[in-house]
Design goal:
Number of strands: 4
Strand content: 5-15%
Largest sheet: 4 strands, mixed
Structural class: alpha+beta
CATH class of the largest domain: Mainly Alpha
Helix content: 40-55%
Distance between the termini: 46 Å
Oligomer: single chain
CATH architecture of the largest domain: Up-down Bundle
Length: about 240
Amino acid sequence: MRYELYYWPGIQGRGEFVRLALEEAGADYVDVARGSERRGLGMAAMMELMESPEVTRLPFAPPFLKAGKQLIGQTANILLFLGPRLGLVPKGEAARIWVHQLQLTIADLITEVHDTHHPIGSGLYYEEQKPEARRRAGDFLEARVPKFFDYFESILQRNPDSDEWLVGDALSYADLSLFQVIAGMRYAFPKAMKRLEPDYPLLVALHDRVAARRRIKAYLKSKRRIPFNNDGIFRAYKELDR
């Protein structure tokens, strides 16, 4: 099956978690909004689908994935769908639900990352809420990040099958997503991460293990990987990094 991923073309954002899964699996997919309009792709194609009255199960916002006749929204939901099809979850319902639960926790963390630079409202520019952002980022780095990192470090420690992966003895899409979290945090908060990382050797090792995988390594070096920038979820504002 050829998958169609619909997401904003200039940022990694939440779409990157889906891209990483598709890339790791070597799936046949097209990143629609980044494609050529001459080929019927590009932003126009994405907006046309979002505005089509024929789509009765319209997702709230990108990312969404078209798989045959199905149109699936929400990052964690897309990965729940793709996981067994791409071989990125263990067999068995209990394991699939466990991976999904971890992905939802990662989604909670990503929301908090976003709110460090937009604590008042997404409709306001960062410059309109800088004092609030400094206060929010301080609490995030001091209280919230350790809580999330402690949790995921403990999950790696408690995995009875392996201390290399979150679930079972092989990589899952949750591992790919956690790699993206560490990479993004290093971009947005390099000073804080330098201080925090020694306390989380298993998380750091997981990041490095994912980065070294053949397809992920090739993807990270390719033009398909959009660089981190200050329009996405992870933003590098020096005044927020402590």
